[in-house]
Amino acid sequence: MTTSADKTHSYAAIDLGSNSFHMVVARLEGQSLRLIDRIRDSVRLGSGLDGKKNIKPETMERAQACLAQFEQRLRGIPRENIRIVGTNTLRRARNADELNRHAESLIGRNIEIISGREEARLIFSAVAHGQPNHDAQRLVIDIGGGSTELITGAGFRPNLMESTNMGCVSYSDQFFPDGHISDEGMRTAILHAELELQPIIRAYREEPRDEVIGCSGTIKSVEKALVELGLSKEHISRSGLKTLCDRCIKAGSIEKLKLESVSNNRCKVLAGGIAVLYGIMRALKIDEIRVSPVALREGVIYDMIGKAEHEDVQQYTINQLQTRYWVDKTQAERVTRTAGNLFRAVAKAWELDPQHDLNLLTRAAQLHEIGLILAHQQYHKHGEYILKHSDMLGFSRTQQYELALLVRYHRRKVNSDALADLPGKRSSSLTRLLALLRIAVLLHRDRYTHKLPTIRLTVRKSELRIGVPREWMESHPLTTVELVEETGHLKNAGIKLVLDLFEDESA
After folding, report:
1. Handedness of CA 239, 245, 247, 249 (dihedral sign)
2. Which of 7, 346, 398, 409 has the largest count of CB atoms under 10 Å?
């Protein structure tokens, strides 16, 4: 019998990969995590893009049908304990929003399309949690359908993180059409993998490592094939993998090897994965790889459970950006503090999420002047560009996009169409966050630390009423003019700003 406590402590992570969609369900028991269910479906999203990089209708149907199966298993798990992440193919797909809308309506959660480096960070976290020696220096390799992640580090902290454009689906389609494996095809695929690694070979060879660990379906299947063919008792050796390459060429296809330990769906893309893995082992001079049972989805769950650690990763990213782009941290802190106070005054009435929305507003306040490093004129536009195109660990692509929008429109005119394009309730939520950020920036235009007067905020639907002491307004004529001008800017965003002056009896 499942209790309400079981449900509260249950978590689910869905990984929408280029080859397969995976879901894991886990339960937090004390300080440890126990996996209680796994579901996998071979959707082959990576092979389902057309010439314009749109997901084909038949592939979209498979993806939506898979999500419907997952949804049944998710019933009873709190929505806030569920995360859906998309990787390489969804990073490239032009119509990924269509699948996202389906996920939101069906499961009640958006798809977080994450960058390659963020994917690498989560993979490393999962593997590190699953190893007995937490302090070991390790190299972690994850071969997916469309990309391969390589991460070095010690303990739970990664050092080098790279996401390369090679995967089992993309390489199988390119070098082994119709599943046919030739000597030339295998040699060319391995060479391409080595060439892909050329820019990073030196850095990865010089990194200290006590162990090399591989994860995800391709590497697990390679180990199973080696064991079944008597080429290894456990783990993956470079010599054993070389013999497997030779046997694949001799057989002409993976299917003709008649591997009972590897599923038919995996056999269709295994040749590309073997070539990528052998290219990596040869380029990085790796003799043996141990195989981990956990990968990206487990890393996503650890990230949810270790929320404080996740926020530390985000704050680390913010600190790095502030330092790199010479952000005035004192001014950023002033705006952040005031924006937070404004948020708390209206969050309940405006139905803002006290965690997600406050976090987004805080990050935007911390980085709203990041574009000043390039030029003062139009610096808000420069800031938008930087945030859209930076690798930001701890942030999904959607979070980066929303963050960039807040920075872009924190001053000057507001483009209501840009905000209206956001899915579901995000348009109204982001518009409201933008209003709070604009007012916080406006109140600190003088750029010096002082105690703000008592400010009264009340809201009703799209109306924001701001009460300011009359005496303070009279002594701050610039702020008065800008607040009046702000009524026009926010009107374009669909928010009616009303100024109320009151007598401050405490002054």
Report:
1. negative
2. 409
Q: Which of 245, 243, 297 is nearest to 276 (CA)?
A: 245
Q: How far apart are CA 281 and CA 235, in angstroms?
A: 13
The whole-angstrom separation of Cα 101 and Cα 110 is 8
Percentage of residues of the chain with pLDDT beyond 70: 96
Contact predicate 464/490, CB 8 Å: yes
Domains (range + CATH), the chain: 4-113 (3.30.420.40), 117-301 (3.30.420.150), 306-450 (1.10.3210.10)
Helix, strand or coil for residue 376? coil
Q: Which two tokens stand for residue 117?
A: 């480096």
- pLDDT 10s digits, 181-197: 999 999 999 999 999 99
Q: Could you give the CA distance from residue 94 to residue 161 in angstroms, rounded to a whole number?
A: 26
User: How would you class 463 by CB atoms within 10 Å of its CB: exposed for 0-12, middle for 13-18, buried for 19 or more?
Assistant: exposed
Lowest mean pLDDT among 22-31, 80-89, 397-406, 437-446: 22-31
Give the residue among 15, 10, 11, 41 at the shortest CA–CA distance from 295: 15
Closest CA to 283 of 175, 150, 193: 193
pTM over 0.85: no
- Burial of residue 20 (number of CB atoms within 10 Å: 0-12, 13-18, 19+): buried
271-309 exposure pattern, b = at least 16 Cβ within 10 A, e = fewer: bbbbbbbbbbbbbbebeebbbbebbbbbbbbbbbbeeee
Element (DSSP H or E) covering residue 150: strand 148-154
Token pair recorded at residue 261: 């330990």
- Residue whose structure tokens are 């195989």: 291
- Residues composing the chain: 507
The bridge status of strand 21-29 relative to strand 10-16 is antiparallel
Residues ≥6 apart with Cβ < 8 Å to 122: 85, 114, 296, 299, 300, 303
Cβ(92)–Cβ(128) below 8 Å: no
d(CA 115, CA 396): 7
Among 51, 48, 69, CA closest to 60? 48
CA 48 to chain centre: 22
DSSP run (H or E) holding 367: helix 356-367
Mean pLDDT of the region 93-118: 93
CB 272 within 8 A of CB 196: no
Name residue 13's beta-bridge partners.
Answer: 24, 83
